[in-house]
Amino acid sequence: MIPLAQPVLGAREEELVLEVLRSGRLSLGPMVPRFEDGFARRLGVRYASAVSSGTAGLHLALRAVGVTDGDEVVTSPFSFVASANAIVFERAQPVFVDIDPVTLNVTPDAVAAAVTERTRAVLPVHIFGYPADVAGLEPLGLPIVEDAAEALGAVSSDGVPVGARGHPAVFGFYANKQLVTGEGGMVTTDDAVIKERIDSERNQGRAPDMDWLDHDRLGFNYRLSDVACALGVAQLEHLDELLADRAGVAALYRDALGDVDPELALPCDDADGAVRGWFVFVVQLPRGLNRDATVRALAERGVQSKPYLPAIHLMSYYRERFGHREGEFPVCEDVAARSVALPFFPRMTEGQIQAVAEALETVLSSSRSLP
Ligand SMILES: Cc1ncc(COP(=O)(O)O)c(C=O)c1O
Q: Does 150 contact ligand 1 (Cβ within 6 A)?
């Protein structure tokens, strides 16, 4: 079976993890600032805070920009559920707006139309690593928290790397990401006050110069261990290669899938100077096709795939809690109903890519020939 994802871990990861194990400093040790400093340097941003997951980072970043009870946060319904959940953690309301059919991101116009006097922040998601138009959101004058969990390596059309614009931006290092630490995340920012608050709240609300037993604010345990940070430091050292390999696999996929079916939609090309940080290779199946049957048929041919992503507003929790229904965000719903993630990882071989393309072609043409 060709798997959906496969991390690249090598001798350098082993070496740095062993360094941590031998040091005995498994948490709150020197590997944490080493990973943070390397990450901030790499992006060209002032500060980075390592956290236990992308979800934890989103939660802390939203708190740091002041999101609280009853606020509204404008965001995308076409995302991993964590971006909306983090808003709900603070008893605020996610206000969804429909996505652009090409980039699959929210647009400044759609966001502007959803702003009310209760809007406290905007949470754009760089979905599938394609940069959202954050510069276009800045004139709204609202705090922005960027969900960059899928977008390491992406560059906005004005040449600024995603995560380097200065607003809090949140990356994720789950095992299928561009950079992996198993579980983990990073919040970047240019704001010293936000950095200080995130560092305290990830560590039970403790200030750096404070006695262990005293806490001046509510906090969480959202720390990232030194073992995870060691993986992060090692992965950063070969990030260029990891990203280039992913981009190479994406280019081969484009060639291989180009003629498979005229109604099969591939990920959008980079436009206007924007650069995607390749995370997943998601295609949209022709309309009217049975997606579950397609996924099953691909599995029978040795190809793992999965529906990706479902629309957040149509998940049962969001329907029940906020009263969402089908038809509210037609572009998102159409894309969410047709999207399938194909196997995608840096060391994918040309043979594996061809095998996926052939399996997909066979499955699509046989389902089209059904009555
Ligand atoms: C768009 C998006 N936001 C947030 C997250 C949450 O990150 P994590 O799984 O590290 O908590 C993910 C993770 O997959 C994601 O894809």
A: yes
Residue to mutate, 58, 83, 171, 177, ligand 1, most ligand atoms under 8 Å from C-beta: 83
How many Å lie between the centroid of ligand 1 and the Cα of residue 214?
32
* Six-digit token string for 316: 């049962």
Could you list the pLDDT tens digit for every one of the 371 residues in the chain? 999 999 999 999 999 999 999 999 999 999 999 999 999 999 999 999 999 999 999 999 999 999 999 999 999 999 999 999 999 999 999 999 999 999 999 999 999 999 999 999 999 999 999 999 999 999 999 999 999 999 999 999 999 999 999 999 999 999 999 999 999 999 999 999 999 999 999 999 987 666 666 777 899 999 999 999 999 999 999 999 999 999 999 999 999 999 899 999 999 999 999 999 999 999 999 999 999 999 999 999 999 999 999 999 999 999 999 999 999 999 999 999 999 999 999 999 999 999 999 999 999 998 876 55
Query: d(Cα 93, Cα 105) in Å, to the nearest integer?
Result: 19
Beta-carbon neighbour count of residue 361 at 10 Å?
16
**Three-state DSSP class for residue 54:** helix
| Single pTM value for the model | 0.97
- The phi and psi torsions of 59 (rounded to 5 degrees) equal -60, -50
* Burial classification of residue 18, based on how many CB atoms lie within 10 Å of its CB (0-12 exposed, 13-18 middle, 19 or more buried): exposed
Q: For ligand 1, is residue 172 a contact (CB within 6 Å)?
A: yes
Given 63, 177, 197, 338, which residue is catalytic? 177
Sign of the torsion angle spanned by Cα atoms 351, 357, 360, 366: negative
* Nearest partner of 261 among 365, 131, 148, judged by Cα: 365
- Between the CA of 248 and the centroid of ligand 1 the distance, in Å, is 24
Asked whether 53 lines ligand 1 (CB < 6 A), one says: yes
Q: Note if 177 is an active site residue.
A: yes
Ligand 1 centroid – CA 294 distance (Å)? 26
